[in-house]
Specification:
The complex is a heterodimer of chains A (194) and B (179). Chain A has 194 residues and is α+β, with helices and mostly antiparallel strands. Chain A is built from nine helices and eight strands. In chain A, helix 4 crosses helix 5. The longest helix of chain B has 25 residues. Classes of the chains: A alpha+beta (194), B mainly alpha (179).
Chain lengths: 194, 179
């Protein structure tokens, strides 16, 4: 088994038990995909066709509107799933963009293949359900942080979750994720001094 | 590299810009202000000044490059051949021991907001990457005005080569400040 699939298997095993038979069926629907830095993978208005598994690199899901308002909603990195998940699972036009922030390697599968597989394998469907609930859990946590935490606390949480992100991603995206002006970001770093 | 396929040239330039971004993101943006503003050991430019100098070129050339790409469509040309002057300029800008004096309008300031300079440089390089992707569909022979003389225009392909070689030159200079 190649290393990318092995990592995918580890991620699934973390969600719950998986039979060999189910794993083999699941492993067959993935194909490798790579992108350079700052490539748009999913465009708002299009329906998400793929589920991604991030093998390498950092990406972001973000909102951007005609008034130039921008919100970095989530960063994705290995080993986790990527793409605009709600658009994928509901098969509705995406409200968000998905782009790479560094050179990235993925595995990807189509909604059609995934859906077909899940409809015939309840154990896999249960795992995916659990994975989606964990995503929901992460979103609720983030909403709480956004409403209650100071910029400094949000910044610390981000660094706790992804310690290397300062060296990987331009600071303006981190500032946007935290919800502060990019010009205040260097002051924040100075204050915290890791 | 005076003649090359268009795709090879754009690929080569793309990976150079990627590397410049990697350096700016992994190193420069994480340095504190005093390090960024410190003159070199020989009294030369600080890191912030090196990048401010590059930003002044970006300010001029990026809109010109964007415009040039927008004005041409679906050129099938498979090969790019440098113009004699453009090829000469691009080669001259590659890193070397030889020094040139910064030209008027491109001399960096001394009282800089260091982190704003780095952030601007990163944004410019991200724009440049986007243009390199779009340039696959553009005619690289189209002529683009240059910053130092309004009498001369160079081929888009040469302007890209020149700009990115010039970036390389001063990024290496900036890196020497933290070695």
């Amino acid at each position: 088994m190649n290393e990318e699939l092995l990592r995918l298997k580890q991620l699934l095993n973390g969600l719950g038990p998986l039979s060999d038979d189910d794993w083999i069926a699941f492993s067959l629907i993935w194909e490798p995909f790579s992108a350079k830095r700052k490539e748009l993978i999913t465009v708002a208005g299009d329906t998400e066709k793929y589920l991604y598994f991030v093998v390498e690199g950092v990406q972001r899901v973000y909102y951007f509107d005609e008034q130039g308002r921008e919100a970095t909603i989530v960063f994705t990195y290995a080993p986790s799933f990527g793409g605009v998940i709600d658009s994928l699972l509901l098969q509705q036009p995406s409200k968000y963009f998905y782009e790479t922030l560094t050179t990235s390697i993925f595995l990807k599968t189509t909604f059609t293949e995934l859906n077909l597989l899940l409809s015939t394998r309840p154990a896999l469907e249960a795992l995916v359900f659990k994975g989606v609930v964990q995503v929901l859990s992460g979103v609720l946590e983030r909403v709480t942080e956004l409403q209650c935490f100071t910029s400094e606390e949000k910044f610390r949480r981000l660094l706790f979750r992804s310690p290397h992100i300062l060296q990987l991603v331009p600071h303006k995206y981190l500032a946007n994720y935290i919800g502060i002006d990019a010009t205040n970001f260097s002051k924040l770093i100075n204050r915290i001094k890791l | 590299m005076n003649a090359s396929t268009k795709i090879d040239l754009l690929d080569h330039l793309n990976s150079r810009v990627q590397r410049h971004l990697d350096i700016a993101v992994s190193k420069f943006q994480n340095l504190d202000e005093s390090t960024l503003l410190k003159p070199s050991s020989t009294g030369g430019w600080s890191i912030a000044q090196c990048l401010d100098h590059l930003n002044s070129y970006g300010d001029f050339y990026l809109p010109e490059i964007k415009e040039a790409i927008k004005s041409t469509q679906g050129s099938p040309q498979g090969e790019f051949r440098s113009g004699w002057l453009g090829g000469y300029f691009a080669k001259m800008m590659e890193p070397s021991a030889k020094k040139y004096k910064a030209l008027k309008g491109h001399i960096p300031h001394s009282n800089l907001d260091a982190h704003a300079v780095i952030a601007k440089f990163i944004s410019q390089q991200e724009d440049l990457l986007k243009y390199l992707q779009l340039a696959v569909l553009a005619d690289l022979d189209i002529r683009v005005p240059i910053s130092i003389s309004n009498l001369i225009k160079l081929k888009l392909g040469d302007v890209l080569k020149f700009l990115i070689a010039h970036n390389e030159r001063h990024i290496q200079q900036a890196l020497r400040n933290i070695q």
